[in-house]
């Protein structure tokens, strides 16, 4: 094959934009723990123009809006080379990235509308990562390996899982998929190019009290792998690219100590995930660490160490033709043939009551609990008044789900949920990547993989490695099994196309697999094209205004100085007169907010040892009154830091009024005093 890899920043605004994942409007960005990246991998057939592109981006999920804008840019740059059938865009599912990049109304509610700077940085970052991969294509080889990851996940809806048939459950040793699949890419001289790992775990080690943008546990695994391979480079730099991509993580949590009542400390591992005092809102899962930062590192390191071992031992080469198949499908109206005599339908999208309960990884609002198969007259009445009552047809279609939001029947100012969904498979030789538009649960994923594998087998393409890539192309929430759906925990209440959603996807993906096996992808109907709504910017974000420094101070001045001396394990901390970080994001795509610098006696100059992409630094922005704000930079000094003289620097932009109607953006910087590490 020809192989190319690329990585580009897609962080976007780190302040004032709600973070995407927990749907908690209070969880708004206030700084940066680690940068977000898009990682692209292109595999091409040297003899033809056949290509496959796989992108994993450090974002909550790929939205339809992101995908349509990326494809548009790729078409204007590369013509017909990169298309909807051969480009897979997957989100890692971090819950700590900026939101606001959706065109469907439901997602506007908790992310203050459509936030153009957030959308643009994701779209441009993805396109740039593909550009870099495109420009660096070289002859290469791909190897595959698989193995088991321990101590890194639990099933967060075990009572739903137990609804699946006993005979089916008995075939598996665990209620989560512990298998990791790793691809290793090298050039023809054996130089290492990159890695893709697929493993099913929610990146929710950072909980919904976090306000720092970061890529969570899988992002930390990428960071460790890239730091090791790009020796001596700053984080985010260097040619080796390591993507830790999502899979069927629907019911899989990294919070391995399980659910406890926050007020009493007792377990709340019950079908309703509810506490005797305080109800479901008190039931939260704990990770393995003392706090969420440590839990993120522990889970991330587990994943990284397994990937490293599998990567080093990978010897099975991937060979064979490149093929891809794609269709757009109206998922609100699919007829599924269960057998020769029975057909069933999918439904218009709707969310159930338990959607509002959230999960043990991020609890919901009010008094909602998981596992509600009855509606609540109080909330139903409010909903009927504000948003309108669901039709009888939709109610019947979704049974036993009590509908909270009938999103498929809500169209103001735009539809609230997608109808048109991408289904897609890309095959690289013996590897089939199923790009799925949401979060399949453990058992749903197993059924889908098995069905696709047997479809390939029955058409003579035997021994395919089938892997699920999660959160691709358009976000449609969750996909549970029919049995799990019956008990209506959070994942089932969020299976938006009704009880037969999984059966519909299995039928559709079998169709794609058959077309690939029979070399008939040209004959697949394209399906109805998704809409691109004419909304470019519609947001409740506060406008950027002129800013001020306190009296007798200027931007970048130190307000609280570092100590003169630290040892490893301590935190060096400095506070500056700051400005809104959104100014920087809107000014430059890859603005670096901070550096840790070490003094070199040999060259008598300062050299940068860390940037804001480092997991050891934290950048906090706090807004004050009358246009003032502060920035605090922390460096958590790791074991093994070289003794010597250091300083912390801050780089920002502030808005200045030059006339009544005109603001200009002015760059500035600040530096701490020097300090000794002993």
UniProtKB/TrEMBL annotation:
Q: Active site: which residues? A: 253
Q: Which residues form the Neutral/alkaline non-lysosomal ceramidase C-terminal domain?
A: 510-677
Any GO MF annotation of the entry:
metal ion binding
Keyword set includes Zinc? yes
All copies of the Neutral/alkaline non-lysosomal ceramidase N-terminal domain together span 1-507
Q: Which GO terms describe its cellular component?
A: cytoplasm; extracellular region; plasma membrane
Q: What is its EC number?
A: 3.5.1.23
Matches recorded under Pfam families: Ceramidase_alk, Ceramidse_alk_C
Q: What cofactor(s) does the depicted protein rely on?
A: Zn(2+)
Keyword Metal-binding listed? The answer is yes
What is catalyzed by this enzyme? an N-acylsphing-4-enine + H2O = sphing-4-enine + a fatty acid
Specify which residues bind Zn(2+) according to the UniProt entry for this protein: 93, 202, 439, 478
Q: Which residues form the signal peptide?
A: none
Record keywords? Hydrolase, Lipid metabolism, Metal-binding, Sphingolipid metabolism, Zinc
Question: Which GO BP terms apply?
Answer: ceramide catabolic process; long-chain fatty acid biosynthetic process; sphingosine biosynthetic process
Q: What class of enzyme is it?
A: hydrolase
Q: What's noted on cofactor binding?
A: Binds 1 zinc ion per subunit.
Family, as annotated: Belongs to the neutral ceramidase family.
**In its UniProt entry, what is this protein called?**
Neutral ceramidase
